[in-house]
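Quick question: what would this complex look like in 3D?
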Amino acid sequence: MCDIIWCKKEVGGKPCDTINYLDPYCFWNWEGKINCAECGTVYYIHMIQGFMYIGPEERPGEEPDIMPLYADKPFDGYSNYRPGVEGRTRPYECKPRAQLKGVADMVKFSIRGRPVRGWRPQPPSAGLAGSFAFNWDIQKLSPEVWEEYQKKLAAGEVKDW
Amino acid sequence: MPEKRDIEINSRADTIGLMDMDVRPYPVTPPPSYDQVKPVYERRKALEFCDWAEDNLRFEKRYPKDEALSGLRVLDIGLWRLGHKFCASLFGESGAEVVSIEPPSGDPLRKLTPFGREEYLLTNKLTGEKCGMEFVNETVNKHCITLDVEKEDGREIFKKLANNVDILIDGMPPGYMDNLGIGYRQLKEINPRMIYVWIGMLGQWGPWKDKQSKFGQWELEPFASCANAWVHNTGLAQDLLPRGKGGDPTRSGIWLADYVAGGQGYVNALAALYWREELGGTGQMIEVTGAEALMDILDFDITWYGFNASIKARSGGWDPNLNQYAWNPCKDGYMMIGGQTDKLWYNIGFCLERDFTQFGRLIHEDPFLKEMGARNALHALIKTYTLTTRWLRDTNRVEAETKLLEYQLAAGPILYIDEVCEFPHFKYRPWVYVHETDYGPLLIASSPSSYQVRAPFRCKWMGRDLGYDNYEIYLKWTGMGQNKVNEMKQKGVI
Amino acid sequence: MAKDPRVTNIEDLPGPKSKGEMEEWKMPYEEYCKKIFDVGNEHAKPRPLKGIKWLSCTMYIFTPHSVANLAELGAECIKIEMPRMGDAMRHTSPFNECYLYPLHDTRPMTGTGLGFTNANPNKYFITMDYHIPEMVEIFYGLVKKFDGLTELYRPGTLDKWKMSYRYLSEINPRFIYVWGGGFGYGPKIFGGSYDILGQAHAGLASISGMHEFMGGHCTKQTNWVIDWQSSNLITASILAAIHHRRKTNLGTMIEFSQVQVPTRMLGHTTTMYGKFGIVRQRWGNWDTQLAVHGIILCGKSDFPDAENPQDKFDARYAMVSAFQDADFKELCAITGMKELYEKYKAHKDRVEGEAQVEIYSALERWAADKSRSEVCKILNNAGLLAEPVRNDREVYESPHYRERGTVRWLDDPLFGDMLLHAGYSSGLMEKSPRRINWHWRPVGADNKKVYNEMLGIPLSKIQEWYDKAYI
């Protein structure tokens, strides 16, 4: 097995059966010890050009050098450990914001506090054959957002930059 | 074929002549013939159209066709950078008469050579003068003259040259020409129809305008692409490779922002020319910077910050907007695979599980990977590309491409330059070809605008000795005879 | 000239002709530049391509942006999309997070993703199904009125529908027809193309990224740079063709293959292989032809307490440049690398591979206890060139781009408050500047405007076509 470690360690009478994914750029050439995200078993591996040259060999009692980024359990409906689960997977820091959503972000105001049409659903407003004019009548179409905007204006939360 | 001969190699220098084009002919394998390509056209029932296209667009027919900008005069002054040079090359390729001014000591770019190795300088076959390859490649169809504009006589001559040009490209530091009294605001008095294009890194004005060190050293690329977040956003994540060992923001292998600025300089200048000629306009000043022209095409990155304060992070060979759309390491290099829609995405799985059955199981069974948008989540990318690379590590690029193309997927290997030059399609067009120059036959890339029915771009010559065109240009553009030119040479002006 | 030689008119003298001009001449150069570009007043000035009309039968980034350049320069451009669906690029967004709504009225839950940004500003958006012969006739009507089009379909596709240059040039001999795609005629003519394929296939990827001995891999350029740069070069070809047409009155066809563009931009790479048999490799953040001229890792982040991980962890890189002898000497003096100066006095010695490894390693050791801004400050104070590697937030907050108007807020007519970093940034023009009116519009937003106001189709007919999904 290579590029993934399918951990079969017996834990509490059942095999662990967790797949630890060895992400390609990190492990393409790599030597050291890595833990299973589920049961914590430490494996020694030595990979050269993507090949598992040695391992995975169990190293009981030793500390891992690295954790996997992602692991999942096929026999458990693919329940998974995503990056950054403490003690199980290693954190992934190179992200555009501290927390990513992975689903559409419903945004009503830009970072300087002015309305932007980043939420759904939008009330219908097109004319013939889907035509639109050159203005967004927010006051009429989305009065609740307009209200909110007025409050922001009054509170001085709307900025030029 | 050259004769066999015994050689002794004691150092790198001994190998130099052994690799030249007369010894090691290009291409190694012949390009595909039309008869080999014809069945490709026929299979899609497009033979008639493709034949028409070949008849009308072929690269080999470029020289007899007209040139788009013939009669246009372009003057180019600048050092070091490729921005103004690429811009002027585009003018040269499209038929304008381009004159490039260097100081009598020459553009320092002429002396640059990879890792400082002088044996890789090109040598003019007739004169023996040496020149760096980068300079030669970005000096297309240009007349090279010398002039020291820091001398009074030089400025007078410069004004005469500028007097009847349509376009002046200025690649000097901010305000340099203005300080000498030969910048836009002075020249527009004598030539109000001139379009003056300044091309630089960050600007001639503004808080971050182009700087020089106290010893006069210029800012060169990648200063521009560091200033617009391009470098910050490029490279592999520190979570995949350690910092300092590849997990860092990374510059482009080329002076990228220069090429983008050069291209936009040309576009803006031609639009200004259209306004001048067709709509009764005048000359004007245009300013193009590498940092901004590259920011213009930085996808949506800054807009994204304005939307919800996201700061784009680097993602290496993976694209954060699409899955699969990435390259990963394979048996003999790197392989790019693309397929985002369900149809294509599952096709990748069907192809890979023929050799690696676990792939189909672990990918297609996983409920989190069933929906197209959800597959773009970070952990989904990690899983998908780990398993894809598990297949790739046993597969070389040719095998991978062949297998994936059977499933109608976009797939292509990362090619190194020797492979680029031997790629059958590239040779057929050809996109690289042997061009005879003053430095002997050189392998060069053709212009992507060379494939046109009427007025294709073309390379006629490349590079020139320093001041090669002095006599001709000074005679034609300023009326200075050879004695006068020689006199100026003695004074160090030319 | 004044008739009386004793009278001197200011017009006859060299130099400024009026008091205003006199002031202009005396103004510091920077102020002068700022004054003539007059940022913010672009719309008061003429459009350089006024009167040019272009059709955009395009998708993704590459071909749409070739028309966007024209639209920014003042041409009137119409983008034709498939009814209901629209351009596939509308459905891409980073990490599936950022959309603007609606895509069009009948799909209120679907938006246009940020992936669509900057490739289609100022265009009018109509829908048309070319498979319907009735619509092809309408298309011909547009061709008669327009100067040209850009399309991206597989070669031969529009020919089958009698919409290729062969047919259109008979309707309008002045028509300029652009096909943009991956490969063009030849054995791989039907090969699909993406930006990333261009980067990979044509040599750019092979020379970008950290070298193998540094533990690195090839890296993708962050943006779809080959799509974008190819589109700029298409616009260059279009403008050259327009100038050629002014002389000859003839249109043309341009076949433009994006996969070729990276090879054209490889500088000496191809020539070095041809002449010396050397296959250029990656060289990371350094330069193969200049030293010192590279990006170094500093020990500390500038914003260790920031919430955003890009500020917190990655504000650690600085671009340092001191390749000329005097600069290098000063750099060595200030960073305590005097022995390296003695060793590598000559540029040709310090630009050698091993020397670069030694010098940059020493520089990073020197920077190990400093932040990025400390490094830049020390070097700048010594008169040397060093700049931080900046991120998107720093670009947004940069006083430079704000003053120059190249990053600005746009009150988009339909989508509201959107930040803009394109268009104005592709070049300042004194007298006939580029301008952006809107980022994009919903699918089919200008059906009435174009079909009725431009082509005179009755409103009832437009409704009928819409109901039948012809448009």
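Answer marked as accepted. Residues 143-154 of chain A form the longest helix (12 residues).
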